[in-house]
Amino acid sequence: MIMGESAENYLETILILNKKKGTVRSVDIATELGFSKPSVCVAMRNLREHGYIATDGDGLITLTETGYEIANKIFQRHETITAWLTGIGVSADQAAIDACRIEHVISQESFECLCKAVKK
């Protein structure tokens, strides 16, 4: 499976919800993202079939090791890019929106240089 922006967003959302609530179900993801439950169920099936998430008999969703690595990478990118944008004067709300777009397309090289610039 080629990891696209949508799949990355789902994995990142699972990570964030897990940090907030401790447990994650499809309904939580649907509510958080404003998507229909059937759409989320299809996405979860695809993520499960490709080994990025696991579900138990109670419907709880957990990230696999691979899923966690991807989710954490995207989350770290989001946090860093948001901080950089707010640091140069972008409003917090707009920075979060823009970071969500940039985090999926920025190259690793550019991201590493951005991290160095933010730390200075």
Word description of this protein:
By secondary structure, the chain is mainly alpha-helical. The protein folds into two domains: 5-69, Winged helix-like DNA-binding domain superfamily/Winged helix DNA-binding domain (Arc Repressor Mutant, subunit A); 73-119, Iron dependent repressor, metal binding and dimerisation domain (Diphtheria Toxin Repressor, domain 2, Orthogonal Bundle). The protein is built from six helices and two strands. Strands 1-2 form a two-stranded antiparallel sheet. Helix 1 (5-21) crosses helix 4 (65-87) and helix 4 packs across helix 6. The longest helix has 23 residues, at 65-87. The radius of gyration is 15 Å and the shape is elongated. The relative contact order is 0.13. The mean pLDDT is 92.
Short description:
Helices cover about 70% and strands about 5% of the residues.
Form type = elongated
Instruction: Return the string of H and E elements.
Output: HHHEEHHH
Separation, N- and C-terminal Cα atoms: 37 Å
Mean pLDDT: 92
Largest sheet, described in full? 2 strands, antiparallel
Could you tell me the number of beta strands? 2
Spatial arrangement of strands, main beta sheet: 1-2
Helix content: over 70%
Radius of gyration: 15 Å
Q: What is the total domain count? A: 2
CATH superfamily of the largest domain: Winged helix-like DNA-binding domain superfamily/Winged helix DNA-binding domain
Structural class: mainly alpha
Extract low-pLDDT stretches.
none
* CATH structural architecture of the largest domain: Orthogonal Bundle
